[in-house]
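User: Could you check the structure of this?
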Amino acid sequence: MKKFVFLCVFFAFSLSLRAQESGIRFFHGTWDEAIALAKKEKKKIFVDFYTEWCGPCLNMSLTVFVLPQVGEVYNKNFVCLKIDAEKGEGRELAKRYGVNSYPTYIFINPKNQEIIHRSGSNKPVEDFLYDAQGGINPKLGSVYMDKKYAEGKYDLDFQIVLTKNSKDGDGDPTQIKKDFLRAFTDLKNKGEKVEDSTT
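Assistant: Sure, the predicted structure tokens are below.
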């Protein structure tokens, strides 16, 4: 019996270590410590805001965060944090960053502690990896994209990125499609050489 219990504990410990090595390695420290570490390592900050009662949060933790390809991208580019939005300093941080649904993912510039990119929900690994690009490159981030969209600057590259980002339900897909087609038409009318894929 003792041998069986030992094997079970050893097996669980091995699985835990394997998941930590292959998936996202979350930093366990305060917000200020995470900011200091990110500045030192020249990385951005990724935060998974969750709650204990959130089913989609648990699903992401068990099925996406543990994947090697996810860990490779997130560990290389970000200091990663899991913050319970209903406990400790998580309450104040959730309020500061306007978190009101779970899971919410935010990508922060540690220099000014401002959001570069915001996302959320239970999503497939491909979409979660695409989110990382918004955190790595501010010009692909939702904050920049929302500002440019509000200003009405619809060049073709912008519309392609915006359309790709809109698939998780953000924004009005009908309006985004209309704006994309308008930008495409404007480029064609200016005589720019673009391949017509709308027919």
